[in-house]
Design goal:
The protein is mainly beta. It contains one helix and four strands, in the order ββββα. It is 10% helix and 54% strand. The longest helix is centred in the last third of the chain and has 7 residues, at 53-59.
Length: 68
Amino acid sequence: MPGSRLLPAGLANGVPAYGQYKPDPNGGYAPWALQVHEQSRGRLVELTFFLDAQRLFPLFGLPLRLDA
């Protein structure tokens, strides 16, 4: 998504996870998805996006809003 931001969220099921925020028309960034990056042999092999950001972000210690 153009203009989006990622924040590290630790591990989800043992693999790296990131909070993805989309630009908010009212300013700043709104939560969009929790991304889980599956890797094999040092290469990214699969991306999974969980769109229930309002529920998942707090579980990973991610804020529900980013300022610009």
